[in-house]
């Protein structure tokens, strides 16, 4: 097949045949742009790997031109690479039809044509096609489609967020779970689901340099999403003749610092067009109401404006106070967050709303008139009136409406350790040390940074002078079986200390800081992770404390304490995260009676950060910062003691008000436990799952070698008779996979086989997008049926052409229509199920097919027609069921949106109009739902 693209040619998308017949808009610079008018979609692909198939009709085929009766192709001409069909109407009129004007709505009738033409497949191929069809339909119609395949534990809070996010047409969210609760996993789940639903083709991840590799690996091993990493060198290689290098890949990870250095690359990145943006550590982008805008923030703002779906990740959303929080929310929804002042004002209402939610939760029966009155200030009359019924569901809708319409619920999800539960304990180990004379002498002249990082003032020989070093050596010797992560502020400190420990003292150590290349950093992290021959200690500068996964270690040495509480939380979060099996031991070596002791007391007594994360830490630090700096030098003085008391009281008061107000709203919104548990439960494939049997059938028919590996695990390899490189996802050396999630989590060398695994999806696509097994013939003996009786089994698959974001398959029953037509034209499908027919089938030898077909052709043609008629009669019922499902869901969503629009004058009616336009598109598409005849089997009773 030619893969030279010429504007005007018609092609279909292999993975998305539902888009209808596409038309090439432009083909240059090694990319091809194609429009799918029936679905109102456009796609841009790298030309050499575009998943497109050329549509060329043959003489005798019927073709459709909008607003014209059907035409039959009589001859074909080619002009400048495009086809012109010379076609004839039923009335015998001749029409030249350039392919450009063909209808964009197509249906393929190949099963029928193949059966009647005697182009038949073995009945086992047919059985495989039917199994593929049914499994595919079931998978895509499942509420949890896209959440089953990732190799992750089913943690309810993450699945809840992923499910909620994907309900939005275009999710734009701040994922702000506390550090280590799995924001990367949540983003991966959302992306995986949207990719499988074909709503996201091109995704861009922007991360701090040190996290590039970790994202790359997490996306690949957990989600089978194969990202490319671009840097200047890679771009230069790809930039032939001024091409935009970013259009050559669909899934891209970019290190932030490189983008910030390269104006031209930023522009190219924006021009390349993306469906989804994920930004990790989003608190790095600073914003202020007045003054010079930060270039990084400005760049992020342009990306957020240009890309429909956006996920911003940060564990510390209020890192720079309420302004920082507002700054990120306005990137997601500028209309909802027009001004900082309005945002501040809104927060005043949170406690009152939270109180109302509590009252509703405790409510039994109808509400009192005073509760009704309070609710009326926030909710529409209908929602309040329904509460009078005393129904649980009315109560839940009122709670949902409050959560949804107020606060930041629509854009922000934040789970805490407190709400998720099951986290390890933090244990603080204080290590008081003598103060070096030099430090004591100088201390009155030192600033806070110098006081907290004495190595910067102890001179060149600091390693010999600093008692922390001696303490560390001793500790390492006494705990030689333990892995320890040490974090300090400066790269120089980490480097000096590591060299000393390794070269002078012989410890197995490794270092990780910002002056190393990405590759060196990843090697260092891998050396530390190796339990057999790896490092006992990894020494990181601050950069090592963000985002990385070191939960296999249980000891953290804080060589210095930062002034910024969020940084401290980030450091502890390296070990205190999902996957940590033991306690998190935090070691703080410090000089007795100095600012270092003061800082320790501040975090321990005022903020309680060594016990658990402190959500109000940055607010308290902001308030007390200058008194802290003033009194820190003398931590044993009265001034410091009263500062600690005041700060502790303030922490407690703020935490209380958070519990009463915003946090309660947030936590309720971020995870509704029952719904979340249910999602996690349903996402577990049932024991009766049919995938193992399916893969055996597949191997048999595609010529793969299939071997049992162990309990619930198999090996698939390309077999001797497999056709070429039929399956891209089947490596030459084979693939070992398990059907068991727990096993897949502990055995990363095995694939996790589900219906969403790329190999399985590829096989389904290969079979369903071709005519593989679509027409078959067999003989069978059936008691009670005379020899010569014909039975025609027909499968019709619902299809419609509409934008993927509508996800119309959710509304269509997750199965195909099966008919079994007998000689008399009756449908006896209900009496004889497909599974019962399969074992009765006998193969018909190739040479017997032509004489048999000659004999049965006439009655067979009638039976096919009858099947078509019966399917056409059922079509209305299918369309109606589908549109009822659509109306039920969309009307609820519309109600909710209308309430939001009413409450937020900043959101104009455009959102509602857009919603209505989409609903209308959905209605139209469902009114055009077709039942395509996709598989036919003729059984002849012998
Ligand atoms: N559902 C899950 N199944 C298996 N492992 C998980 C799951 N969720 C999280 N993890 C693991 O827990 C660790 C923390 O997750 P992740 O990195 O996504 O957290 P985070 O919230 O992004 O952290 P940070 O705030 O440090 O950026 C990672 O090692 C991740 O692989």
Automatic annotation (TrEMBL):
ATP binds at residues 177-184. One of its GO terms (molecular function) is ATP binding. It comes from the Bacteria. A motif (DEAH box) lies at residues 280-283. SUPFAM superfamilies: P-loop containing nucleoside triphosphate hydrolases. Residues 468-640 form the Helicase C-terminal domain. Pfam families: Helicase_C, RapA_C, SNF2-rel_dom, Tudor_1_RapA, Tudor_RapA. One of its GO terms (biological process) is regulation of DNA-templated transcription. This is RNA polymerase-associated protein RapA. The gene is rapA.
């Amino acid at each position: 097949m030619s893969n030279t693209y010429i504007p005007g040619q018609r092609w279909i998308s292999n993975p998305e045949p539902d888009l209808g017949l596409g038309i090439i808009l432009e083909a240059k610079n090694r990319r091809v742009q194609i429009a799918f008018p029936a679905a109102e979609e456009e796609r841009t692909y790298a030309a050499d790997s575009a998943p497109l198939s050329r549509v060329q009709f043959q003489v005798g085929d019927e073709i459709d031109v909008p607003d014209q009766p059907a035409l039959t192709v009589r001859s074909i001409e080619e002009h400048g690479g495009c086809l012109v069909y010379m076609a004839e109407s039923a009335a015998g009129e001749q029409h030249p039809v350039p392919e450009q004007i063909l209808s964009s709505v197509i249906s393929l009738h190949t099963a029928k044509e193949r059966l009647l033409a005697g182009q038949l497949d073995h009945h086992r191929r047919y059985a495989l096609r039917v199994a593929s069809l049914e499994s595919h339909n079931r998978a895509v119609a499942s509420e949890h489609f896209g959440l089953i395949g990732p190799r992750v534990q089913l943690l309810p809070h993450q699945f809840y967020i992923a499910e909620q996010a994907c309900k939005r047409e275009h999710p734009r969210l701040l994922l702000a779970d506390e550090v280590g609760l799995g924001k990367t996993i949540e983003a991966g789940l959302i992306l995986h689901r949207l990719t499988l639903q074909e709503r996201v083709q091109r995704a861009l991840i922007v991360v701090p340099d040190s996290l590039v590799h970790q994202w790359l690996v997490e996306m690949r091993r957990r989600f089978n999403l194969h990202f490319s990493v671009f840097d200047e060198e890679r771009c230069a290689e790809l930039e032939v003749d001024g091409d935009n290098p970013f259009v050559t890949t669909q899934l891209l990870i970019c290190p932030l610092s490189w983008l910030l250095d390269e104006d031209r690359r930023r522009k190219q990145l924006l021009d390349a067009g993306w469906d989804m943006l994920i930004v990790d550590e989003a608190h790095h982008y600073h914003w202020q109401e007045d003054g010079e805008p930060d270039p990084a923030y400005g760049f992020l703002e342009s990306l957020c404006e240009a890309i429909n779906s956006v996920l911003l990740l940060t564990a510390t959303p209020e890192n720079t106070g309420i302004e920082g929080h507002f700054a990120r929310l306005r990137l997601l929804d500028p209309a909802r967050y027009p001004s900082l002042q309005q945002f501040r004002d809104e927060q005043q209402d949170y406690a009152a709303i939270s109180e109302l939610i509590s009252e509703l939760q405790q409510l039994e029966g109808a509400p009192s008139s005073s509760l009704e009155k309070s609710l009326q200030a926030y909710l529409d009359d209908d929602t309040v009136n329904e509460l009078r019924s005393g129904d649980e569901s009315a109560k839940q809708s009122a709670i949902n409406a409050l959560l949804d319409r107020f606060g930041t619920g629509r854009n922000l999800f934040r789970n805490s350790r407190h709400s998720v539960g099951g986290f390890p304990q933090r244990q603080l180990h204080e290590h008081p040390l003598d103060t070096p004379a030099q430090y004591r002498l100088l201390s009155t002249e030192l600033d806070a940074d110098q006081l907290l990082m004495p190595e910067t003032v102890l001179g060149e020989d600091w390693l010999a002078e600093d008692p922390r070093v001696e303490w560390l050596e001793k500790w390492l010797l006494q705990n030689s079986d333990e892995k320890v992560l040490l974090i300090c502020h400066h790269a120089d400190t980490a480097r000096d200390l590591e060299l000393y420990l390794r070269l002078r003292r012989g410890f197995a150590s490794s270092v990780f800081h910002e002056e190393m290349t990405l590759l060196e950093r990843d090697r260092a992290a891998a050396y530390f992770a190796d339990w057999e021959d790896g490092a006992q200690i990894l020494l990181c500068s601050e950069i090592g404390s963000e985002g990385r996964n070191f939960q296999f270690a249980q000891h953290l040495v804080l060589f210095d304490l930062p002034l910024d509480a969020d940084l401290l939380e980030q450091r502890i979060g390296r070990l205190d995260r999902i996957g940590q099996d033991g306690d998190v031991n935090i070691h703080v070596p410090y000089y007795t009676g100095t600012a270092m002791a003061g800082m320790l007391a501040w975090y321990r007594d005022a903020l309680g950060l060594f016990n658990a994360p402190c959500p109000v830490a940055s607010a308290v630090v902001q308030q007390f910062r200058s008194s802290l700096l003033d009194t820190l030098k003398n931590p044993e003085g009265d001034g410091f003691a009263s500062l600690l008391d005041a700060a502790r009281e303030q922490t407690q008061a703020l935490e209380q008000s958070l519990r009463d107000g915003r946090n309660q709203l947030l936590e309720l919104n971020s995870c509704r436990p029952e719904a979340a548990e249910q999602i996690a439960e349903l996402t577990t494939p049932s024991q009766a799952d049919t995938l193992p049997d399916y893969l055996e059938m597949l191997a048999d028919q595609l010529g793969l070698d299939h071997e049992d590996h162990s309990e619930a695990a198999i090996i698939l390899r390309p077999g001797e008779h497999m056709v070429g490189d039929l399956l891209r996802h089947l490596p030459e050396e084979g693939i070992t996979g398990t059907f068991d999630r727990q096993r897949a989590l502990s055995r990363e060398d095995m694939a996790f086989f589900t219906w969403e695994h790329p190999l399985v999806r590829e096989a389904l696509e290969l079979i369903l997008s071709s005519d593989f097994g679509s027409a078959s013939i067999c003989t069978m003996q059936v008691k009670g049926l005379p020899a010569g009786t014909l039975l025609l089994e027909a499968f019709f698959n619902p299809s419609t052409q509409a934008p993927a974001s509508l996800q119309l398959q959710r509304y269509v029953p997750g199965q195909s229509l099966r008919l079994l037509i007998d000689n008399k034209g009756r449908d006896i499908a209900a009496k004889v199920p497909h599974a019962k027919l399969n074992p009765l089938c006998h193969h018909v030898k190739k040479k017997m097919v032509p004489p048999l077909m000659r004999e049965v052709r006439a009655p067979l043609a009638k039976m096919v027609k009858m099947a078509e008629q019966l399917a056409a009669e059922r079509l209305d019922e299918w369309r109606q069921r589908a549109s009822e499902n659509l109306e039920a869901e969309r009307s609820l969503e519309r109600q909710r949106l209308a309430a939001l629009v009413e409450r937020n004058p900043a959101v104009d009616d455009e959102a509602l109009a857009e919603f209505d336009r989409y609903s209308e598109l959905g209605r139209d598409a469902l009114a055009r739902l077709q039942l395509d005849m996709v598989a036919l089997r003729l059984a002849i009773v012998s």
